[in-house]
Amino acid sequence: MNKKLYVISGSSGVGKGTVIKGFLEKNPHFTLSISCTTRTPRPGEANGVNYFFLTKKEFQECIEQDKFLEWAEFAGNFYGTKQKYIHQCLEEGKNLILEIDTQGALQVKKRWPEAVLIFICPPSFEDLEKRLRGRHTEDESTIQKRLNEAKVELERAESFDYKIVNDDLEKAIKTLEDVINKEMADA
Ligand code: 5GP
Questions:
Q1: Cα of 101 from ligand 1 centre, angstroms
Q2: In this structure, how many other beta carbons lie within 10 angstroms of the beta carbon of residue 13?
Q3: pLDDT tens column, 53-76
């Protein structure tokens, strides 16, 4: 069983979702892991597709029963990856990408040393703020929370295996492909 997990983090609004989407379109033999969260679904999001949406009580029970490979509180909500889900996907032969925050990524690395940690950075902090506001999906207090988180995440990224600057989408996707191909070849 291939045990390599590709864990991708990046500041909120950095465009990591778009980079990952571009990567997955070109590399259909990769699957995006589905996380659990207590946050409210955004328009167009569906349970079991974008996330498994849990109540805080359900999430708490999973923590108590040690069901998560990793979990974190991010901007007032809980997010986590179920161990059983990851094992099942790997047993099915899937190559998995985890799109999770930096706290979770560092927990994965501790429990799962074969994990490869990749951080997607903005060209600058100012650029990140502009992108985050441009989405128009969050209110001001949420934006402030996410900007504060972004600062902390940039610091945590220092212990990641790779950093990819997203100043040009195609270039970032290509760099991600190069990193993953190299790691697959080394496996
Ligand atoms: P969003 O609410 O924008 O979907 O996600 C907010 C943050 O939570 C993002 O940085 C995303 O990568 C992170 N996230 C999503 N799923 C997980 C997870 O399972 N675990 C952790 N630790 N973070 C997650």
A1: 5
A2: 23
A3: 999 999 999 999 999 999 999 879
Percentage of the chain lying above the pLDDT 70 cut: 99
Dist. CA 187–CA 181, nearest whole Å: 10
Our answer on whether the CB atom of 35 is closer than 6 Å to any ligand 1 atom is: yes
Residue 1's pLDDT is 67
Q: How far apart are CA 69 and CA 72, in angstroms?
A: 11
Number of H helices, E strands in the chain: 7, 9
Top mutation candidate among 37, 40, 84, 89 for ligand 1, by most atoms within 8 Å of CB: 37
Q: What is the 3-state secondary structure (H, E, C) of 1-35?
A: CCCCEEEEEECCCCCHHHHHHHHHHHCCCEEECCE
Q: Half-sphere exposure of residue 29, counting CA atoms within 13 Å on the CB side?
A: 5
pLDDT value at position 126?
Answer: 87
- Expressed in angstroms and rounded, the spacing between residue 100 Cα and the centre of ligand 1 is 5
